[in-house]
Amino acid sequence: AQKVTQAQTEISVVEKEDVTLDCVYETRDTTYYLFWYKQPPSGELVFLIRRNSFDEQNEISGRYSWNFQKSTSSFNFTITASQVVDSAVYFCALSEAGVQKLVFGQGTRLTINP
Amino acid sequence: DVKVTQSSRYLVKRTGEKVFLECVQDMDHENMFWYRQDPGLGLRLIYFSYDVKMKEKGDIPEGYSVSREKKERFSLILESASTNQTSMYLCASSFPGLLGFNEQFFGPGTRLTVL
Predict the structure, then answer these.
(1) Within an 8 Å CB–CB cutoff, is residue B11 touching chain A?
(2) How far apart are alpha carbons B30 and B49 in whole angstroms?
């Protein structure tokens, strides 16, 4: 069975601090996909990244970076030099190959204080 | 830009009422999904559809049904609303992937309150 765990329910940091959001997943499949979504106060989930299980290269996009480690079944998300606009709920999600649906984690509410 | 719209942002209904939540996407996506979002539980899949008139149960289909008569429209129906169906409902759509799964595009959500 698939499962995604985001153990951090809420994180609060001061602007310009770096922050890491943890994501741990469980799957029996060898081929799967991992996602991160951002949900700002407006409510609409925004896609951030998709990685497949065969690509363990870390990814960097501006202030955002993702660390995928199959050995620990983790797909962590780091925001460098955080900004107030980064305040949102962040979701990690998993899908297995051939399965047309996502399993989401519980979400982490990130608050960046000025 | 992909646009997924939902008929209402806020809805208040009474116990026992029949409730329709509508979702429309404009990108010709085959897949459409309905989720509910509750604090501490993340998003849970209610139903999804991979083609017109096709539907599949998700993880929590009890108390819900769906309808997809046109490719762009996917409706969620609460046959007899109950207070435990008070939640945020999110619609999403995507293209199907050959092996995996393409990213889903989400609507703004409908916050439903059942009194």
Answers:
(1) no
(2) 8
